[in-house]
Write a structure and sequence with these properties.
The complex is a heterodimer of chains A (158) and B (524). With 158 residues, chain A is α+β, with helices and mostly antiparallel strands. Chain A has seven helices and four strands; from the N terminus they run H-H-H-H-E-H-H-E-E-E-H. Chain B is α/β, with parallel strands linked by helices. In chain B, helix 7 (144-154) packs antiparallel against helix 8, helix 10 (205-219) packs across helix 13 and helix 18 runs antiparallel to helix 19. Chain B is globular, with a radius of gyration of 24 Å. The chains are: A alpha+beta (158), B alpha/beta (524). The complex binds flavin mononucleotide (FMN), iron/sulfur cluster and FE2/S2 (inorganic) cluster (FES).
Chain lengths: 158, 524
């Protein structure tokens, strides 16, 4: 897939058509767009507003409220690390330092070549296997710097 | 073992087990069995919640489930070599004996989690064979008010955090004259250190479906929604498949068990906002809006989703209901301590040797939980602090571990039980840094409606940054911090702003030396 600032208009139109009559349609549509496209392109918002008969401001308000919705194209690899208490109790901060220097990017950042994005999350429900993280959708537990490097090696998209 | 029979091998498909390689263990078992030409039946169960042993696999032999763990794919050939399919290879280093006799499990009293890790989560037949749908069958023969009465008699209190009596809510919704009512399950499980909702949805989703259906029958609602956090993609897959399985067998849908009464369920996935666990913000989100907290009254039981009377409960609250209706509220009410009745699924995590899910009647002490079950710290260093009840819960010092786990006892000690998460820290923890984290979390997750929460939390982070830079000179900043916490506690619409002072002030109270103040005198 091309990671340039292009997005699939037809896909968004199809999502709007499929979900516009569901209860609470706006969140469901934004969720599906995020899941299918990997981001919620800002130029798609007027289209969604039109399809739901809502104001642009309303749609923008919802799209900007939730942490999951990205407003720029995703990196090729998305790494999420849990920074909440249970993971902190087992070395999440040291792990985070390792990951930041390994990827050359801080939390909330994307590398210049768009190959890696690093995100902070606050609990993945995997606290009994802390520290936890996610590489490209694969949940990982009992992470150490070495285990992270091994997982990255096998899960990275080049 | 006779050549024809195929041994059943259970390999969990719980997210935690998957995060530790359970899929590659399952693949290795299938490959090794094929190589040896032996037939095996792989069952993908949930987790029993003994996470230090995950991936924990089980082999069923002569009606007994023999467990092995933690198993890596490299261990699989040696298990076959030892003959684990036909007998208990006592000598194998990963052998744990009969799963149900492992003390961690044997000492629990599981009602909600009785089937998790035991059955195939997506098999209606398995669910029925293990006592499933007995509560629903009874409920279908009862008037709504009688169902509500059992929940009232059980003294079941909401397991999502606020511990409000479920029966009172249900009665309120039942009494509304509206034709359209809703049942909503709060599966946002935002509290760090908690994972019981996830385990239940992945390990025994039909129990949640049964509990919600009973709620629908009780209050007169025909439509239910499960609001699921987006961090749980595997739970979404399991729930979706379980709903389809229940529908195809007539346990959900337009005509439940041929009674002519309908109940439908829909799963809605959130989008990463802790505040959407607060019930009114969740309802806003379900309506497709920003997750802004509503003013109460009206309470959701009167005017909730789309303005209709709505029962909102946590996953574990609904999952407690089938047993209550099957055996009667009085039986459930026999268990527990003080005004906390029944069992509580505790989630033990952080720096602990044996983290996991522990369902027991209320009244266990923190010490019993952390040492008898948890085996002390994982690092082997001295335990210094425990946080009870999620990110808005208090930090307690080691000297307070005799505290009993019940709602009132924890409240009296300046804490809360919340959703039942207990996170252990050893002596390397810095409580001033944890206090800063609590403020930062509030700043990140605030819905923005109240000024103290929106602005004050950021101010709290700045104050604590200064404290962390120069603890010796923290005095004046700590006075400001106390004032700020008073403002937050008094001027917040919901518990995110209102309770952020709890972790912060408990850290300051019990661990003043981390803030540059003198250590507390030795306790009597
Ligand atoms: C900030 C905040 C977050 C909350 N998060 C959750 C949650 O993730 N899950 C949950 O069940 N309840 C959560 N609650 C509690 C709900 O508001 C509500 O009390 C609960 O869903 C009612 O169900 P119960 O009575 O069965 O516990 C939260 C409350 C607040 C103030
Ligand atoms: S306390 Fe914070 S999260 Fe709660 S309603 Fe006010 S601003 Fe929103
Ligand atoms: S605190 Fe990290 S997964 Fe829960």
């Amino acid at each position: 897939m091309d990671s340039a600032e292009t997005w699939n208009k037809d896909a968004v139109a199809a999502i709007v058509a499929a979900l516009k009559d569901a209860p609470g349609a706006l969140l469901r549509i934004l969720r599906r767009v995020q899941d299918d496209l990997g981001w919620v392109p800002p130029p798609a918002l007027p289209m969604i507003a039109h399809g739901l008969n809502l104001s642009r401001a309303e749609v923008h308000g919802v799209a900007s409220f939730y942490h999951d919705f990205r407003h720029t194209p995703p990196a090729r690899n998305v790494i999420r690390l849990c920074r909440a208490e249970s993971c902190q109790a087992l070395g999440a901060e040291a792990l985070a330092r390792h990951v930041r220097s390994r990827l050359g990017v801080g939390f909330g950042g994307t590398t210049a070549d768009r190959s890696f994005a690093l995100e902070a999350v606050y609990c993945l429900g995997n606290c009994a296997c802390s520290p936890a993280g996610v590489i490209n959708g694969h949940l990982l537990g009992r992470l150490t710097p070495e285990a992270f490097d091994d997982a990255l090696e096998s899960l990275v998209r080049r | 073992m006779s050549a024809g029979a195929s041994a059943a091998i259970f390999v969990p498909r719980d997210s935690g087990a998957l995060s530790l390689g359970a899929d590659s263990v399952a693949a290795a078992i299938a490959a090794e069995a094929a190589r040896r030409g032996v037939a095996v039946k792989l069952v993908r169960n949930g987790s029993r919640g003994l996470y230090w042993l995950e991936p924990m696999i089980e082999v069923e032999i002569a009606g007994e489930r023999l467990a092995y763990g933690p198993v890596g794919s490299a261990d699989v050939p040696s298990l076959f070599e030892a003959g684990f399919l036909s007998a208990a290879p006592g000598g194998h280093p990963l052998a744990l004996g009969a799963a149900g006799k492992i003390p961690y499990l044997a000492r629990q009293h599981r009602i909600v989690f009785a089937r998790a890790g035991v059955t195939d989560p997506l098999s209606v037949d398995d669910y029925l064979a293990h006592g499933g749908f007995h509560g629903l069958k009874r409920a279908l023969e009862m008037p709504g008010a009688a169902i509500v009465d059992e929940v009232v008699r059980a003294n079941l209190r909401g397991r999502g955090g606020a511990a409000f009596p479920a029966g009172v809510k249900w009665k309120t919704t039942l009494d509304q004259p509206d034709q359209t009512k809703y049942v909503v399950c709060n599966a946002d499980e935002g509290d760090s250190g908690t994972f019981a909702d996830r385990m239940l949805m992945e390990g025994d989703p039909l129990l949640l479906i049964e509990g919600m259906t009973i709620a629908g029958l009780a209050v007169g609602a025909a439509q239910g929604f499960i609001y699921l956090r987006s961090e749980y993609p595997h739970a979404l897959r399991v729930l979706t498949a379980a709903i389809a399985a229940a529908e195809s067998r007539g346990y959900l849908g337009k005509n439940v068990r041929g009674t002519g009464r309908g109940f439908a369920l829909d799963v809605v996935v959130g989008a990463g906002a802790y505040i959407c666990g607060e019930e009114t913000a969740m309802l806003e989100s379900l309506e497709g809006k920003r997750g802004m907290v509503r003013y109460k009254p009206p309470v959701p039981a009167v005017a909730g989703l789309f303005g209709r009377p709505t029962v909102v409960n946590n996953v574990l609250t609904f999952a407690s209901v089938p047993a209550i209706v099957e055996h009667g509220g009085d039986a459930y009410n026999q268990l527990g301590a003080g005004r906390s009745r029944g069992t509580i699924p505790l989630q033990l995590a952080g720096n602990v040797a044996r983290p996991g899910l522990i369902e027991v009647p209320f009244g266990l002490s923190l010490r019993e939980l952390i040492y008898d079950f948890g085996g002390g710290t994982r690092s082997g260093r001295p335990l210094r602090a425990v946080q009870v009840g999620g990110p808005l819960g208090a930090y307690f010092p080691a000297a307070m571990l005799d505290l009993k786990i019940d709602y009132e006892a924890l409240a009296e000690a300046g804490g809360l039980l919340g959703h039942g998460g207990v996170v252990v820290f050893d002596d390397t923890v810095d409580l001033a840094a944890m206090a800063r984290y609590a403020m930062e979390f509030c700043a990140i997750e605030s819905c923005g409606k109240c000024t103290p929460c929106r602005i004050g939390s950021t101010r709290g982070v700045e104050l604590l940054d200064r404290v962390l830079r120069d603890r010796a000179a923290a005095g004046a900043d700590l006075d400001l911090l106390r004032e700020l916490c008073d403002t937050l506690a008094a001027g917040s619409l919901c518990a995110l702003g209102g309770l952020t002072p709890m972790p912060v002030m408990s850290a300051l109270r019990h661990f003043p030396e981390d803030f540059g103040l003198p250590a507390p005198a030795a306790r009597p």
